[in-house]
Amino acid sequence: MKPRIIVLLAVLIVGVVIVSPVCALGIQIQPDPWNTMTLPLGRMQNLSYDMSAEGKGITRITFDAPTDTRIDFTLFYGNGSSVDGYFSYNNIGFMTQRTEVSIGGVTSGYDFYGYKEIGRIEIVGYARNWTTTTEYDKGFVVYDSVFGISEGKAIAFYKEDGLSDGVVYAFIFASDRPVDVTVYTNTRDAVAGNVSKNIFDTIDEWVNFALSVGYFVFALVSGLFQWLKFFFIDNLLMTISLYLAITMAYAACTSKNIFLFFRKFFNDQRKLFEFILGLWKTLIEILSAFRGIFRI
């Protein structure tokens, strides 16, 4: 019971930090622990990507783009609706760079002193724009993740109140330079529901997510321990005898003389010893880490 309580408290704290309070005006994105990251699509200059045939929606698209790059994109959502946008990084002077993002005619830029070789722009298919402490608009958001969404630097929001039916399911983009692209997806219902979740819904999902990961790791470590116990405790003599016989036969069949035979044979024994030590060391480190995490 103690591990569950500790995980719950930890996720509550993380949830409070991650999810901005409803009283704060501005744009908010509820974190989704069940996002499915497709395999990174790689480096490319243009792409047409459609999830409608699979019945899924697109929660997030990330572009890792080098300096002096402009990307034009179109999001397709709902029943055939679309919205255009772009973003760019440009050097505008000595050690001065400008980030500009735009969607549906809403444009936002930010000039900063410095230089980014690679910047990350994110497009999120669900977001809230709090207009009062109790009311918000739904829509899509494009922003420069280097500056974050809370600071309001290089962030553009496109209002789409019918977001429950207007989930993004496809997009196209074209860039003047190669960029790295990653897409996150989920079911259409899950994507549509994200925009209406409250802080308690999100924390509950994070608790379940953390517990499922914890149980999986525990089962993995437990299984590894059982196999180690079976081979190297319960049946240690049998394991050593079999390994000695197999390595001796292999060394004898692949050696041209007695000196090479002994070299291969003893080298194999050293590898076994190092392998056993490495397994036990890894297991002990994992158990120590769990003990430190779940200790009150």
Give a short overview.
With 296 residues, the chain is α+β, with helices and mostly antiparallel strands. It contains five helices and twelve strands.
How would you describe the overall organization of this protein?
There is one protein chain. Strands 1, 2, 3, 4, 5, 6, 7, 8, 9, 10, 11 and 12 form a twelve-stranded antiparallel β-sheet that branches. The chain is built from five helices and twelve strands. A hairpin with a 3-residue loop joins strand 5 (69-77) and strand 6 (81-93). The chain is of the alpha+beta class and 296 residues long. It folds into two domains: 23-197, Jelly Rolls; 211-294, no CATH class. It has helices at residues 2-18, 188-194, 199-234, 236-254, 258-294; strands at 26-28, 36-37, 42-50, 56-66, 69-77, 81-93, 96-103, 106-113, 118-130, 136-144, 155-159, 168-187.
